[in-house]
Each structure stands twice: as C-alpha cells, then as structure tokens.
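How a chain folds remains the central question behind the approach discussed here. In the encoding step, the backbone of a single protein was reduced to a row of integers, each denoting a local shape. We regard such an encoding as a compact summary of how the chain folds. The sequence in question and its structure tokens are set out directly beneath this paragraph:

___
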Amino acid sequence: MLSNSSPFAWWKILAFVLLMYGAIMGFMGNVPRMEQLGETIRNLYFHVPMWFAMTLFLLIAFAYSIVYLKTGNLKHDRIVVEFTRTGMFFGILGLLTGMMWAKFTWGAFWTKDPKLNAAAIAMLIYTAYMILRDAIADEDKKARITAVYNIFAFPAFMALIYIMPRLTDSLHPGNGGNPGFNAYDRDREMNMIFYSSILGFMLLGTWITTLRVRLRLWADKKDGLITNSIEHAS
C-alpha cells in the first residue's frame, strides 16, 4: 500500500490535482452534442470513474483475503474490510450518479435494465459481507470466514457487473449490443479528463482507506489483537 505517513506525499497531491482538474473541466470543458444525452454526458467523468475505483478496491480486498488466509495476520484482514468498505462507498456513489443520469436520459431513476439490477445485487452481496462480520464475535473466526466469503463474492461481482449485462438487452452503452462511449466522438480533451478522474478517484479512495486502516490497527494494537495475531501466524 502507498505510504500514508506524510500529509504531503506525492500521490496525495496528485490525487488532489487530478480531482480538481476532473471536477473543473468536467463541468466546464467541451463535450460532444448528442441529442440523446445532451449535457448529461458530463456524468461520464464521475459515474464511470467511481465504478472503476470500486472495482479496483474490491479487487484489492479479494487479493488481501487470500493473503490473510495464508498468513493469519489480522492486519491483512483489516486491509480487506476497509478496502471493501471503500469499494461499497464508491459503488453507492456510482449507483446514485447512475440514477441521476438515468432520470435525464431514460425518464426514470430506476428501470428494469439488467446492469442496474445487477449492480444492486452486487451491493447487497457486499452488504451481506458486512452483516456477516458483525454476526461473529471471535476475531480470528470472523476474519477467516469473511475472507472466504470475499474470495467468492468478487467473482460474483465481476459476473454481475461486467459479464451478464453484455449477454442480455441493456440500455447501458457497451452492453446488450449498444456501442460504448469509445465508439462516439470522445476526443483527446475528453479522454484526458476521463482518465484523470479515474486515477484521481482511485487515489482518493486509497487515501481514505489507508487512513481507516491505520485507525483500525491503532485500535487493535491498543487491544492487543495485532500482536496476538502475529504471534499466532508465526
């Protein structure tokens, strides 16, 4: 993970610059005039990058779940749960921005579109992960069981979000036979804003997560949980 020891770390400054650039240019930059989208195409700079960031964070949680099962170190479990929380946070923001976009382009906040429903199911899967954690008192048992759950949850998430909508009729660009935005006139300026927003949201989420992990580890150290876990793993 990126170091979070300094408030002036280069990647934090980069996150701030990229997000400011994405926000300012996202609202003020030139966009193609498309009848079916109009000015709502600017949501491309916010809605889609949030989903990319969510996928990255859930992938990291998936990877650290495997690491935890190999090491038994509760520090890795804390990384798993915090990246999962951050992923869910960006997923909820993605759903909300998607609903706003749907209202202006499809006429309703929610439709029977497969990708919308699949996204809701994916969020429920990870909500169940959080509920499962709260239902188990023993820390080691909680970490082991939820790590296994997370390992199975991520492939299900990928299938729901990225595979199934492409196999059925869908209103989403790039799904159900619809052309993606890369098939439209997305010029160099749009690409710069779009990819800057993706990287900016990823760095922001990493920043948030590393702070939360540090707080959790501090609390665990105070309670003696991390020391016990390391001794148990060795």
Q: What stands out?
A: The CA atoms of residues 15 and 203 lie 5 Å apart. The radius of gyration is 20 Å. The chain has one domain: 10-229.
